[in-house]
Amino acid sequence: MKNQIAVIVFGLACLALANPIARIEEGIWKSLEESELTNVLITFRRADTVAAWDRFYSLRLQTREAILDTQHAILKDHADVIQADVTAMLEKTQLAGKRHYLDQLWITTELIVRDIDRETVEMLRDHPDVESLIAEQFIPLEETEEGESFDMNDYNNTIQNQWGVVNVQAPAAWSRGITGTGIVIGNIDTGARHTHNLLSGTYRGNNAGENHNYNWRAPTGNAATPSDTNGHGTHCIGSHSGTGGIGVAPNSRWIACRGCATASCSTFDLNSCGNFMACPTNTAGGAAQCNRAPRVVNNSWGGGSGSTWFNPILTAWRNAGISGVFAIGNSGNSCGSANSPGDQPLAFGVGSITSTNALSTFSSVGPGPGNAVKPNVAAPGQSVASASHLNNTGLRTLSGTSMASPHVAGAVALVFHARGGGVVAAHNRLTSTALAHSSGGRTCSGRPEGTRPNNHVGHGRINANAAA
After folding, report:
1. Which secondary-structure segment (H or E) carries 250?
2. pLDDT of 461 above 90
3. Which tops the pLDDT comparison, 280 or 145?
4. Scanning 4, 76, 256, 428, which has its CA 20 to 30 A from the CA of 247?
C-alpha cells in the first residue's frame, strides 16, 4: 500500500513538473481586487530569441529596407509560433464574449493582453506555454518646470528663432540648405496636437496621400486620431520638428506614439511604442509596413538607473539605423543619478544646459552602468518655448532634460540629411563637434566637469551646424 501511495505521489510530482503553473505577479491580483479587468504581459517558456537573432544577423543584409523587413519577419514569425496556442485560446474566449484585446511585442516574443478578467488570468496561469504574467507598471514623467505661456496671435503670428535653436547653431545649418528634409523623427510621449500651426506642416500624416495610419499609434485604447491632454509630447515635437523658429529640423517629418497616456508612462505602452517605431502599423496595430520607420526617435522619459528592460528595442532600432535619443533625467547633479534607458550603451543620453551654457541644476549626471560616460551630450533644456497642446497658436515655456532631448533629436536629423550614413557615425559627429560648457568644478567617477568627456555634460553641448 505504501508503495502504491509513493507511486501516486511521484506521478503527481512528475505531472506538476510537466505542466508547471505560471508565475503571476502580485500586482495583477491586487488590480483585479480593485477592478474587474486589468492588463497583463505574458512571457513564454520557449521564448528564447537567440536563434532568431542569429538567423537575422547571418544574412548580412545591406539595405535599410531589407534590414527592417527581415528583422520584423524573422522575429515576428518566431513570436507567432511560440504564442500560437495561447493566442488561439484567447481568441476563442473573445468569441465567447470576453472584451480583452492583444498587442504582440514581436521584438521580445511577449504578448500584452489588455482588459483581461480573473477567469482568463487563471486560464493563462495553467497554460503550459506560459512562463509568467507581468503586471503593468508606470514610470512618472520627469517633472518639468512651467514658465510663461503666450500666443502667436499676440506677435502677428511671427516669432523669433528660439534661444535653444540658436544655441545649437541650427540656423547656420539651415543657411546651407540643411533643414532635415527627408528625415522622419518619431516621438514616444504623451501624444501630439497635430493641428498646431507650427506642427501640422511637418506631421507626416498630413502629407499628400497620407493619413494617421503608420504615423500615429495609441496602444491604450487604439485612438484613431492624434491627441495630447498633457502637452509634454506636443512641446517636445515642436523642439525637433516645429516650424517658425521653434524646431531644430523644420523640414523633417514627425510621427508619434502615445507611450504616456497621462502624466505617467505605462511600461506596456512604452514597449508597444518601441515595437511600432521599429515597424509602424495602422492605428489599430495591424498591417505593418516597416519601410515607414523613422530614422530618429525622441524619448523624453525615463526612470531609475541601470535598468535594461528597454534594451531589446534599442538593439532592434540600432540594427535598423534608428537613433534612440533619450532625456537623461531631472534627478539633480548627484553622481550616478542618470536615468534609464538614457544610461544604457545604445541610448544617446542628453543632459540640459541653461542659456549661459551652464549645467542645469536639475539635470541628472552619470556615470552609467560599467562606469560609462553619461550623458553623451548636453543641449538647451531650460526655459524652452515650444508648441502648446491647448490650441493651434499657443506656445508655452518648459524646463527639463525632456526639453533638451528633442534639440538633439533634431540635430541628428540634420546630420542624417547632410551626410546620410548610420547611427554611430551621426552620434560621433555630434560628440566630436560638441562645444565645452561653463564648468561647475564638480567631479563624478574621477572625471572633473571641466574635462571632456565627463559625467555631467558628456562630450559637451551640441553644435548642429558643425556636426552637419
Report:
1. none
2. yes
3. 280
4. 428
**Torsion (CA) 238, 242, 246, 247 in degrees, nearest 10:** 90
Model confidence over 187-213: pLDDT tens digits?
Answer: 999 999 999 999 999 999 999 999 999
Burial of 102 (0-12, 13-18, 19+ CB in 10 A): middle
| Crossing angle (nearest 10°) for helices 50-58 and 64-95 | 150
In this structure, the strands spanning 264-266 and 296-299 are: unpaired
Q: Are 310 and 278 in contact (CB under 8 A)?
A: no
Task: Find out whether 276 and 284 touch, Cβ atoms under 8 Å.
Answer: no
**CB burial of residue 101 (10 Å; 0-12, 13-18, 19+):** middle
Answer whether 43's CB lies under 8 Å from 134's CB.
yes
Contacts made by residues 12-20, CB under 8 angstroms, sequence distance 24+:
18/128, 19/126, 19/128, 20/128
pLDDT tens, residue by residue, 301-355: 999 999 999 999 999 999 999 999 999 999 999 999 999 999 999 999 999 999 9
Amino acid of residue 407: H
H helices within 222-292, ranges in order?
A: 232-241, 267-278
Classify residue 353 as left (phi > 0), alpha (psi -120 to 50) or beta. beta
Residue with cell 522619459: 301
Residue from 61, 136, 146 nearest 388 by CA: 146
Q: Which helix (H) or strand (E) element contains residue 466? A: helix 464-467
Which residues is 397 bridged to in the sheet? 385
pTM tops 0.90, yes or no: yes
Specify the 3-state DSSP secondary structure of 412: helix
In this prediction, residue 154 has a pLDDT band, given cuts at 50, 70 and 90, of: confident
Closest CA to 301 of 275, 336, 335, 262: 262
| Residue among 117, 168, 62 at smallest CA distance from 468 | 168
